[in-house]
Write a structure and sequence with these properties.
Two copies of one chain form a homodimer. By secondary structure, chain A is of the alpha+beta class. Chain A has three domains: 16-234 and 381-430, BirA Bifunctional Protein, domain 2 (2-Layer Sandwich); 247-376, YbaK/aminoacyl-tRNA synthetase-associated domain (YbaK protein, Alpha-Beta Complex), CATH 3.90.960.10; 446-542, Anticodon-binding domain (Rossmann fold), CATH 3.40.50.800. Chain A contains 15 helices and 30 strands. In chain A, the strands form nine sheets. A five-stranded mixed sheet of chain A has the order 16-14-15-17-20, with helices on one face. In chain A, strands 27-26-28-29-30 form a five-stranded mixed sheet, sandwiched between helices. A four-stranded mixed sheet of chain A has the order 3-7-8-23. The first copy, chain A, is globular, with a radius of gyration of 27 Å. Chains A and B meet through strand 1, strand 2, helix 2, strand 4 and strand 5 of A and strand 1, strand 2, helix 2, strand 4 and strand 5 of B.
């Protein structure tokens, strides 16, 4: 088999999935955030893809394959070339025409839908693909969790009205539940408002890893997943500029960041947002850059756990002498201030003045206020990816279809994504122990590790080969370890690769006409009569 | 179904496969040479991929998936970044690191093999992938035949010695024969010398289209396929320069282009090569730029057929007063001269002087000689792609493996490619008639077109739906045309899409408890008892 196992943990791998996939010889790093899949990984990814395909087909999806190369023009028309910034890989062809490597396919598919939807009778549609995406992540990390080139299932629904979109959305959400469950992933589903999507709530599927050491947050768009404790994601940096003196700005009736941003014509990232929480009976003033949102898991962590953490009510905010809609981090007394580290990524922010209808220009952390805790508490995908994506998606409601009376109507579009490699990474995060992966049978690259002890012994070699042939004949996928390696090396590698069932053929077992059978998830081995092994293995896999 | 059929031929499509795929709504053009695959095309491509996978697996292949993004450095080290020129898509990431979009994967895989082959025991290996390639073709054309982004099966064998390479090569060649045959492609296999590959001949699979109107040449590396009659491929242009006076150059013992090029330190593209053929008993003097080779199919075509076309013997050349090894196109009398149009792509060529040990500098077509026929007669893949690729491939024999005694040996690498979309294009070139595609059952997107006439009639709608459910239950793939369209539209579309079998449900048939059954390849329809349809269809597909 192409791919060597490694005994030692690679130094660069922080996440268990990254470490184990490298050690098992499943992935090969080409460049930062760019991997080749070795045969073991590819077999598993293909199984995940097949599960995805079956479930999205069952939800009414039609599979297509769109191009990665796209004219930059598509992205300029949608306005997303700017929004994507450096994340968008750009290039020029030999005739100097600007192209992009698509990070997602709303733009192109909209053109395809325009060309192929002539009437309301052509709707609804759910179109999907499993295709390679390119995003120039600022800090690729975590093996397959955050990469620059990756396979993604991206699906797009097109409906004539909100009721139709709800039906499509529900079908997709159910497909997602089925996919995660079939892949052996435990998820917690969180309803999340996504106003820009047009009133329909979206779901986040939060995955909690076994050991509690890592929390992987996976958003349904597949755009982002992170270790929520360590919490690294790209907050757009802003150019340093000299600190300017604070100025009061009159902002009649302005309460939200969105309103403020529009009224004073400053981007949201030049504002500071105040969000109030109650943690163990106390008000917590959270400051975060206006383009970001608070990740409550992270906030809870930096507060040392904070059971019962919740948003404060407007009354609770007022009780502390704060002006909701224009609360200021400046001049606070006796209120704990937790700042997202984005407050240090920029300067001269717009912030509340703590009096109605006024805000302050040129507010700066350290100079004008000092937070008690500064840490990364931003909700990566809401602030970084999902929200941006959602906004961009909303811009795509430009396609029209004629109804029964020939009147033009907007087509409502929904977007749904799953990163295939990321799903594998998340599954391994949840399914491993200290010795290696413990892969669910549905996605394991093979069903069975067949370990032959002492292959130089002819009896063992023949017996193992015969068993291998028999199991394959019975439709089982078998990884036959026929190397001249010690029992220890073979057992360690079998544990590392983590196939559901391990079979051991040894001279002693052959004499007794038995084979040792062990589930990867169990520490107990049993012996099964050689003639019954195929049947027994099939039963175990089904069970 | 996503994708609309078109009644009229798209103006831009010259090749039948291109025209029919556009008309059937199978492909959507994103940009020049960049397509999205609509559901019908994707279903067919997946079947072709599966056939390829099964055959390459049977040949001992292991599937991987390598990245498209690669550091430019890999290509600078191999020397191919320059050789590829503008065909190589280049880009920079956000940290300004130069990257390429891989047009092929010898470079990267060599690194992966170095990391995973520690000993002769790790060999032989056949590694393959079905993956998206990017090549900035100068003149993309022909639908899926010549594109800038395409799926390719690329396989690479690694062996300890020439005997091993021969075994791998033979296994791959057999896999190719099986793949083409299973896809319904008729190929003619041509042995071709490829010295740079190291003594092992390579095969070309030449596909001849049905009607004789088009000849598609597909080389095993998958790099190139062209309509041999119209024959467009990229001959590297040379800068225009002023015509210089002819000079004699002393070239003692120099006979081949290679020797000439080395001796006078001029690239082969600055030379003119003379090749002699016998066509219908007459000597033909063929002139072609020294970096290109003659395509005998094209030559035969420009000579109006020329049955029995063959290379002339040295004796036949001498009989005409020509000096083999230094024959000149200048001053010929009574000998037909056919020039490849590359003689006009450059100036001041080195050519033969028609006396031993001398050549002429600054030879120019039109000024110094006039060909009787000027046309594209170059063997695209030998001159343009294959030969370059082969040369580059040879540079990859830099990986070493230690043998039994720990001595380092070179690993011999073989490269084998098939363009998946191009294979589909070629199959359609061979399998169509004036009404549309006639797809082989093995790769058709569905088995059956189920045409219901007058869907507004409830009896018809119910009957057709029942038959659809029954056929699907029997494991058949059915495209159910349940649109409210006329019989004519439905029949035309069924012919256009070209599924192997068409079933017609009509009120009259329902009264007789029969279904009309027709093979796409036949003009005869028959009626089959409704209860027997599934069995009958399966028998027809198998037969």
């Amino acid at each position: 088999m192409f791919g060597k196992t490694q005994r030692n943990d690679p130094a660069e791998a922080e996440l268990a999935s990254h470490r184990l996939m490298l050690r098992a010889g499943m992935i090969y790093q080409v460049s930062a955030g760019v991997y080749s899949y070795m045969p073991l990984a590819l077999r598993t990814l293909r199984k995940i893809e097949q599960i995805i395909r079956e479930e999205i087909d069952a939800a009414g999806g039609q599979e297509v394959m769109m191009s990665a190369l796209q004219p930059l023009e598509f992205w300029e028309q949608s306005g997303r070339s700017e929004a994507m910034g450096n994340e968008l890989f750009r290039l020029h062809d030999r005739r100097d025409r600007p192209l992009v490597l698509a990070p997602t396919h709303e733009e192109l598919l909209t053109y395809m839908v325009k060309a192929n939807v002539n009437s309301y009778r052509d709707l609804p549609l759910i179109i999907y693909q499993i295709q390679t995406k390119f995003r120039d992540e600022p800090r690729p990390r975590g093996g397959l969790i955050r990469v620059r080139e990756f396979d993604m299932k991206d699906a797009y629904s097109f409906d004539v009205d909100q009721d139709g979109l709800d039906v499509s959305y529900d079908a997709m959400a159910q497909a997602y539940r089925n996919i995660f469950s079939r892949c052996g992933l435990e998820t917690i589903e969180v309803e999340a408002d996504s106003g820009a999507i047009g009133g329909k709530d979206s779901s986040e599927f939060i995955l909690i890893a076994d050991a509690g050491e890592d929390t992987i947050v996976l958003c349904p768009s597949g755009d982002y997943a992170a270790n929520a404790e360590k919490a690294v994601f790209a907050k757009p940096q802003q150019d340093a500029e000299p600190l300017l003196p604070i100025e009061e700005a009159h902002t009649p009736g302005i309460k939200t960041i969105d309103e403020l941003s529009k009224y004073l014509k400053e981007p949201a990232r030049k504002t500071l947002k105040a969000v109030f929480y109650m943690a163990m009976g106390e008000l917590v003033f959270v400051v975060i850059r206006g383009d970001l949102e608070v990740n409550e898991v992270k906030l809870s962590n930096v507060l040392g756990g904070a059971p019962g953490l919740r948003l404060a009510s407007p009354e609770e905010v007022q009780e502390h002498g704060l002006t909701a809609g224009s609360a200021s981090p400046i001049g606070l007394n006796g209120i704990k201030v937790v700042a997202d580290d984005s407050v240090d990524m920029g300067s001269n922010f717009l912030a509340g003045a703590n009096k109605p209808d006024y805000h302050l220009r040129n507010t700066n952390h350290h100079r004008d206020f000092e937070a008690d805790i500064v840490d990364d508490i931003a909700l990566a995908q809401r602030g970084d990816s999902c929200e941006n994506w959602a906004r961009a998606t909303a811009m795509f409601w430009i396609a029209h279809y004629p109804d029964e009376n020939g009147e033009p109507h907007l087509i409502l579009m929904g977007c749904y994504g799953i990163g295939v490699g990321r799903l594998l990474g998340a599954t391994i995060e949840q399914n491993h122990d200290e010795n290696g992966m413990v892969l669910p049978a549905t996605i394991a690259p093979y069903d069975v590790s067949l370990v032959a002890l002492n292959m130089q012994n002819e009896t063992v070699a023949e017996s193992a080969q015969a068993l291998y042939d028999e199991l394959r004949g019975a439709g089982l996928e078998v990884l036959f370890d026929d190397r001249n390696e010690s029992a220890g090396v073979k057992f360690n590698d079998a544990d590392l690769i983590g196939l559901p069932i391990r079979l051991v053929v040894s001279l002693r077992n052959i004499r007794d006409s038995v084979v040792e059978v062990k589930r990867r998830s169990s520490s107990e081995a049993e012996t099964v009569a050689t003639t019954d092994v195929a049947t027994e293995v099939k039963a175990m896999l089904a069970g």
